Amino acid sequence: MRFHGVIAVAAAAVLAVGPMQAAPMHHHAAPPRAKTAAAAQTSGLGEIMSLQQMRHSKLWFAGSAGNWPLADYELDELKEGFDDVHRQFPVHDGIRLAPLLEVIEKAAMPDLAKTIATRDAAKFAQGFDALTAACNGCHQSTKHGFIVIQRPTSLPYTNQSFAPGPR
Fold it and tell me: Per the domain annotation, does 160 fall within a domain?
């Protein structure tokens, strides 16, 4: 799917959320967690999304460096993070997250995975930008438009080489 197609899908998801918010919900956000050992191992949505932001950044630097195995790994880690969101937060602040996550998981991510598999650096940048736009569309739809994701501008991990191959 081209970048503009993902933008159109993300915009459709934003428009579709309005009616969903007004509809009665059968799922409710998880109640406050008790202070137990099991609860200590469960991350909040903010913590999961912070990890997603880290993976997003590492994905950019891996793809930009042509380290396709690392880019593939980071994309898979993003998928796992979204699986955690599906499982732990089907509804957050009265908003069903599944339809919004589907824009990311079924449009932007598969296209980016194909690009990584073909090792196409030019298309990688386009696919990464489409993924980023889908993330920002979700933030807009969930009343978190103040969280704007972009291409990272500097390496956040100075203790990791993003160049391909062993060092």
Answer: no
Contacts of 68 (CB under 8 A, 6+ apart): 62, 116, 117, 119, 164
Instruction: For residue 33, tell me if it sits in a domain.
Output: no
Cα–Cα separations (whole angstroms), residue 161 to 102, 144, 155: 32, 32, 10
Q: Which helix (H) or strand (E) holds 154?
A: none
Kindly state whether residue 100 falls inside one of the protein's structural domains. Answer: yes
pLDDT digits (tens, 9 = 90+) for 109-147: 999 999 999 999 999 999 999 999 999 999 999 999 999
Number of domains in the chain: 1
Tally Cβ neighbours within 10 Å of residue 163: 13
Domain-located, residue 36: no
- List Cβ neighbours of 83 (8 Å cut-off, separation of 6 or more): none
CA separation for the pair 163, 167 (Å, rounded): 9
pTM of the predicted structure, to 2 decimals:
0.74
Q: How far apart are CA 92 and CA 139, in angstroms?
A: 12
